[in-house]
Design brief:
about 375 residues, nine-stranded parallel β-sheet, globular, binds zinc ion
Length: about 375
């Protein structure tokens, strides 16, 4: 085992832990800001650090196309290129190939596709995905899988999951173990509990440094997502980290942490920040709304980020109305700060064994809404 996960405290199925990596420790439960193309959009690396993030995510698909994995390696790897010496997790590229490319051909060994940027032809196999992630110098590498489309029949989900399990074996074989680096397998099986169990068992048998739950947040809804977690997590080893891919809203994170998930990534805080949507202790605000035009109060009185500590809501509103780039920058900063503060609060609540009460207080704040 090349990544060490230590469980420090539990509160029911929820756990607080530490993952020791070659690029420093990760306190869990953790939210990883998404740095798709070698940047967390609208944020400098210093700003990302200032939000409290200590691991970020990079996207293999985007980086293999531009600037290219070999180019990133020549520039000293993703950490050096981005000025992010901390841990980086990269996805396998499979999800974006399926969601962003129009012309693609799946076969038993991989997927051939045309770049959405310039139409050039590329091929991704489990071995090539792992090689690219090695070139990027990913701290945590993800096995190549097929994110099963939703909805899928049980037969389609079974075939897709079986393909991902074959690719998981090939991904493991291609991964070069290094101290402090790790490879995660990805559980698939759509919304079918028996398939999720089969997938979890298959991956555990292969043996990974951590286990991701994939194929969720694709339109199934929170209730189904939580029921898949309930059907999957008991079959994952307690000694390794669990990562719910592509999730989610603050409420999704709370529900998944309560079920024993340790790691998350999602574009919600960054994407929402660029479109004037702010996640706050009083729910979600749209800063373009006219009601903020003369509002001199801070965005969120409970937040210490620069958007909240130094500016009024009316200024943020003005920036978006005037289409100034500082608007997306400040709101991205705020949303990432809010997510990191949320995760810190959950970690502390688990250690103090009061997660349920803490979650109830957070939800009560969102439901109460903005003060008049
Ligand atoms: Zn703030």
């Amino acid at each position: 085992m090349t990544l060490r996960f230590t469980q420090n405290a539990t509160d029911g199925p929820a756990r607080a832990g530490t993952i020791e990596t070659a690029h420093g420790p990760i306190e869990t439960p953790v939210f990883m800001p998404v740095g798709t193309a070698g940047t967390v959009k609208a944020m400098t690396a210093d700003a990302v650090r200032a939000t409290g993030a200590n691991i970020i995510l990079g996207n293999t698909y985007h980086l293999m196309l531009r600037p290219g994995a070999e180019r990133v390696a020549a520039l000293g790897g993703l950490h050096r290129m981005m000025d992010w010496p901390g841990p980086i997790l990269t996805d396998s590229g499979g999800f974006q190939v399926m969601s962003l490319t129009k012309l693609r051909q799946m076969d038993a060994d991989g997927v051939t596709f045309q770049s959405h940027i310039d139409g050039s032809r590329h091929r991704l196999t489990p071995a090539r995905s792992i090689e690219i992630q090695h070139l990027l110098d990913a701290t945590i590498t993800m096995a190549l899988d097929e994110c099963t489309p939703f909805p899928a029949t049980e037969e389609q989900a079974r075939e897709s999951m079986a393909l991902s399990m074959r690719w998981a074996v090939q991904s493991k074989a291609a991964f070069v173990p290094r101290e402090g680096y790790g490879l995660f397998g990805i559980v698939q099986g759509s919304v079918f509990s028996d398939l999720r169990k089969i997938s979890a068992d298959a991956l555990t048998k292969i043996g990974f440094d951590g286990y991701a739950i994939g194929g969720l947040a694709v339109g199934e809804g929170q209730e189904k997502m939580f029921s898949v977690l309930d059907a999957t997590i008991p079959y994952l080893p307690a000694e390794q980290a669990r990562y719910l891919m592509g999730v989610g809203t603050p409420d999704d994170l709370i529900g998944a942490v309560a079920r024993g998930v340790d790691m998350f990534d999602c574009v919600i805080p960054t994407r929402a920040g660029r479109t004037a949507r702010a996640y706050t202790s009083r729910g979600v605000f749209n800063l373009r709304n006219a009601r903020f035009a003369a509002d001199a109060r801070p965005l969120d009185a409970d937040c210490t980020c620069p958007a909240c500590a130094r500016h009024a809501r009316a200024y943020l509103h003005h920036l978006f109305r005037a289409e100034e780039m500082l608007g997306p920058m400040l709101l991205t900063w705020h949303n990432l700060h809010y997510y990191q503060q949320l995760m810190r609060g959950l970690r502390t609540a688990i250690v103090e064994r009061r997660l349920a009460a803490h979650a109830a207080a957070l939800r009560a704040g969102w439901e109460a809404g903005d003060e008049p």
